[in-house]
Design a protein that fits this description.
Pfam family, one: TPR_MalT
Protein name: Helix-turn-helix transcriptional regulator
Strand order of the largest sheet: 4-5-6-3-7
CATH architecture of one domain: 3-Layer(aba) Sandwich
Keywords: DNA-binding, Transcription, Transcription regulation
Distance between the termini: 52 Å
Structural class: mainly alpha
CATH class of one domain: Alpha Beta
Organism: Pseudomonas paralactis
InterPro entries: P-loop_NTPase, Sig_transdc_resp-reg_C-effctor, TPR-like_helical_dom_sf, TPR_MalT, Tscrpt_reg_LuxR_C, WH-like_DNA-bd_sf, WHD_MalT
Length: 831
């Protein structure tokens, strides 16, 4: 990253920064302004230590002598080091004692840079460095760059406020963006490098073979410096998601494991703490990912040994993953006996189960009722209903059970699973019958099955508009999950609760609830990626509904990625959300591309049409109507509504509570446009009365606005004005901005013509949109606390604080912290 060149204003050679160098003030400013006498940069190779030291050297104050001593990682003897140091400082070298004496009375303000200190363990050289640092005077500032932390008396220097240590040298996403060349994106570069300086540079070379270049770099910078046993140990550890001292002892033998691990750590061999834990470690992810993709015949045997160790420790998740990597599929399936329903939402378990079933079939996967239940849940999660039905039928293989109680339990499990399949397929009546009977028969010990029955009944109550019933069922299910300490299932149930809050006209409360739940899940050791994907998509929906397009876009894109990874059928709603955002911008071509991609994915994954067809046509109908293509909307909506009318009517998908009334009012709008509507006002009033009786305020808002639009088109401006005024008032109360935006897209100029264009008011002028936690964060911001201080005081993560701050800015329509505080005080949201 740096080169040496003769400098005109200073004697000797000085570093020259690369033409690709990016100034990193966030790192250099603390280093340059520190009062510490010793400034240590300790990080693995390729972390940009030399470049950062050079950047600081070139900013030395006027009158400060700068001495640059390139060591190139060489293992010098103490005598050689003293001689070179004396030469760099312009001193005659006699012996160490004389050099120490000269350093202790050094007269000039001097910055001494020791670049790339000895890379291999060198106790004698480390001891010399310790003596040199202790002998130095305040006029002499030591700048030290090293891959390993020399064995010096660092605690003493820390206690005396004489040491500043910096080890986090990675590029931020903003800094990477300054380096980007055409054809690269910040996300792709960060995924390849995680901000590691050498990785970023390799990613941007543009040679088309970044993996090969990185392997060559790794061979030269790491493997060539390690002994054969250490190189083998490092390769093994790179194939493990995490490891600790005991696992290393088991893998490499008693004594050798601990020695290998300590040596690799001492050498700065890219070994880091795993997820901020003190006892678990992992290899730097980009390098580990690179090694895992390389062919290595020995990897299966090491994964097998790791599986044995994790099994002995009772870590079934890690043991299961290692068994799969070792291709020990029977062992992996046997370990699934230790999994529960909530484990389905952890890591990539749902995908791994589906893959096992695809590759090894029923003979391996359906050996017990518990396995049948897990596989059924995974199939339902992915939307593979036909396969799920076949899987549920396999429960008959385990009948009869030896006792009447066991037989009743088996039948109840069959009813619960079949009830959920019917529920997701749209057969509401039969599903409800199965779920209720299962709930009566399931013992208290089968609490996860009881909980899921309650969740299914909650969703059905929401779909019927029985909000009080839904609230009672949701509360019972949440209490059950909390009583058993299941945060994952509690988070799953909070999705139902959030839909209830949204229906009651409180989307901002629903959004705050889901943000809190997501933050709780983020603190779990085992990632609940599949569940977080659903939560983030629902947050995107709520943000879109409230007119927060930037946040909605971020949530939809993140949720889309997570759901694609977990094969969740609700990935559909990521595409739909992005389509609506594109339509808001007037980019209908992009909107229909998103809808096409959603339909194609559903078909590729063999998801039943009942899951996605009606929802796709609803969004398509909205877009066609905004484009003035009402005839397409009429054709599509009439066709799809046939499935939701009559004695054999289907239930709407659980994630789209307002699907049927929205299709009904969309049909009225389109027919009025074409002049073929029969009793449009009566039909809308019936929908409006129904939503009012059920307390569905968000839907009521949309219907008021639609009624105003229809009556205006039918030539009744007085009725149109009253309906629109009611809709606008409810929209302000419930923060339902998307409904107003869609009205403007369908009927541009309508609100202006009736002098009803709402004033641009901050979100919260009518009702405080900030959650209690957001208010707490804003109060601490007003007191001058940094994000890190707020995280410490509220016992939440720094990421959560930043999320709250972003949400506050979005809701108040501001860009900076000071603006947020001032706006909140103006609106009376805080004292």
């Amino acid at each position: 990253m740096t080169a040496m060149t003769r400098c005109l204003d200073r004697p000797g050679f000085m570093p020259r920064l690369s033409t690709h160098h990016v100034l990193r003030a966030r790192l250099t400013v603390p280093l340059l302004t520190a009062q510490a006498r010793v400034r240590l940069l300790c990080a693995p190779g390729g972390s940009g230590k030399s470049a950062l030291l050079a950047e600081c050297a070139l900013q030395a104050p006027k009158g400060c002598q700068v001495v640059w001593m390139p060591l190139n990682g060489a293992a010098l003897s103490p005598l050689e080091f003293c001689a070179r140091l004396a030469q760099q400082l312009g001193l005659p070298f006699v012996d160490e004692a004389t050099l120490l004496l000269d350093l202790g009375r050094w007269p000039h303000t001097t910055w001494l840079f020791l670049d790339d200190f000895c890379r291999s363990p060198a106790p004698e050289l480390d001891a010399l460095l310790d003596r040199l640092l202790a002998a130095g005077c305040p006029q002499l500032t030591w700048w030290l760059g090293a891959r390993r932390r020399p064995l010096c008396n660092w605690p003493r220097l820390l206690l005396d406020d004489e040491l500043l240590e910096c080890s986090e040298l990675f590029f931020s996403a903003e800094e990477v963006e300054q380096l980007l060349a055409p054809g690269h994106s910040v996300d792709s570069v960060m995924q390849f490098s995680a901000g590691w300086c050498a990785g970023v540079r390799i990613a941007l070379l543009g040679d088309g073979h970044p993996d090969k270049t990185l392997l060559d770099y790794l061979q030269h910078e790491l493997f060539n410096t390690l002994s054969a046993p250490l190189a083998e140990a490092w390769r093994v550890l790179a194939h493990l998601p995490r490891f600790n001292l005991n696992l290393c002892e088991y893998l490499f033998g008693g004594g050798d494991g601990a020695e290998h691990l300590h040596e690799l750590q001492a050498l700065g061999a890219f070994i880091q703490p795993w997820e901020d834990t003190s006892d678990w470690l992992h290899v730097f992810p980009p390098l580990a990912r690179l090694l895992r993709d390389e062919p290595w015949p020995a990897k299966r045997s090491w994964h097998r040994r790791a599986c044995q160790w994790f099994s002995a420790e009772g870590d079934w998740q890690a043991a299961f993953e290692q068994a799969l990597l070792a291709q020990e599929y029977e062992v992996a399936v046997s370990l699934l006996q230790h999994f529960s329903f909530e484990d389905l939402f952890r890591q990539q378990n749902a995908v791994l189960l589906l893959r096992l079933h695809e590759q090894h079939g029923d003979e391996l996967m359906l050996g017990s009722a518990q396995l049948v239940g897990l596989l059924t849940a995974a199939l339902l999660f992915a939307g593979r209903f036909e396969q799920a039905a076949l899987c549920i039928d396999q429960l008959a293989r385990f009948a009869p059970q030896p006792t009447a109680a066991a037989q009743r339990y088996l039948l109840a499990r069959w009813q619960a699973q079949w009830g959920w399949l019917l529920h997701l397929s749209g057969d509401a009546e039969r599903s409800r019958e199965h779920l209720l009977e299962a709930l009566q028969a399931l013992p208290d010990s089968a609490w996860t099955s009881r909980l899921m029955c309650l969740s299914g009944l909650t969703q059905q109550a929401l779909l019927r508009g029985e909000l009080d019933v839904a609230q009672s069922l949701s509360r019972e299910a949440l209490c059950l999950a909390r009583a058993h300490g299941s945060l994952v299932l509690e988070a799953l149930l909070e999705l139902d609760h959030a839909q209830l809050l949204e229906q009651r006209g409180a989307p901002y409360r629903a959004q705050s609830l889901l943000e809190t739940v997501q933050a709780m899940l983020a603190r779990q050791r085992l990632r609940a990626g599949p569940l977080v994907g659903r939560i983030v998509l629902r947050r995107g929906h709520l943000a879109l509904r409230q007119g927060q397009d930037a946040l909605a876009c971020e949530c939809f894109e993140t949720g889309l990625t997570l759901c694609l990874q977990s094969q969740d059928k609700r990935v559909l709603y990521g595409y739909l959300g992005l389509a609506l955002l594109a339509a808001n911008r007037g980019d209908y071509a992009q909107a229909f591309i998103q809808l096409r991609d959603a339909e194609r994915l559903m078909q590729q994954r063999h998801v039943p049409e009942t899951v996605y067809r009606a929802v796709l046509l609803l969004v398509s109908g909205h877009l066609w109507l905004q484009q003035g293509r009402a005839e397409l909307t009429v054709q599509a909506v009439r066709r799809v509504l046939r499935h939701f009318r009559g004695p054999c009517a289907k239930q709407a998908p659980p994630a789209t509570l307002e699907l049927i009334p929205r299709l009904e009012y969309l049909l009225v709008l389109a027919e009025v446009r074409l002049g073929c509507a029969e009793q449009p006002i009566a039909r809308l009033n019936a929908l409006l009365e129904n939503s009012r009786q059920r307390g569905m305020l968000c839907l009521e808002t949309e219907l008021h606005l639609v009624l105003g639009e229809v009556t205006w088109q039918l030539g009744d401006p007085a009725l149109a004005r009253r309906a629109l005024q009611a809709g606008l008032a409810l929209a302000a109360r419930c923060q339902v901005q998307q409904a107003i935006r869609e009205l403007r897209l369908r009927a541009p100029g309508l609100l202006s013509e009736l002098s009803l264009e709402p004033q641009v008011t901050p979100a919260g002028a009518m009702q405080n949109p900030l959650s209690q936690r957001e208010l707490e964060v804003l109060q601490l911001i007003a007191l001058g606390n940094s994000n890190l201080e707020i995280a410490d005081r509220l016992y939440i993560s720094l990421h959560t604080v930043k999320t709250h701050a972003r949400r506050i800015h979005s809701k108040l329509g501001v860009e900076r912290r000071t603006q947020a505080v001032a706006k909140a005080k103006t609106l009376g949201l805080m004292a």
